[in-house]
Amino acid sequence: MVHVKNFRPASIKICMKYILVNLRNARFIISIQGAPYQFIPIAGKEIKINRSTFQVENRRMLFAFQHNSSVIYIKMEDLLKLPRFREKVNAVLRSTEPPRNQTLTRHKQSNYSIDLVIDELEQLNIKRLIDQALDHRDEKAFRELLRLL
Length: 149
Hints:
The chain is α+β, with helices and mostly antiparallel strands.
């Protein structure tokens, strides 16, 4: 039976489409029938996770593990069947998401700057309409537009 004993990735890189979990110098140890097998980067070296679906993209990738002189290869899809491995990968995913309130704060700041731009454009439009009312000598429109400023 296979168990995950330790899983600490070397690094995590967040790209536009993917989260790349680098395992090259990772502490990744599995136990097979009580014997510890250390991950060695001779085959698969990273876990590639789609950021929009949170699915592992390289499911067929082989990962090598060594105990003394014996090396075994395990597919990513087989590792994903292990509950503890899935827990560890999910923990990595959670660590890459910004906190919920931080996301909302950024969203509010974005909306605030959009509101400022819209207000500025409205003011410029009113000034343009005032100029147009003056050109046409339309005193009524001129006075109404002045109230809007």
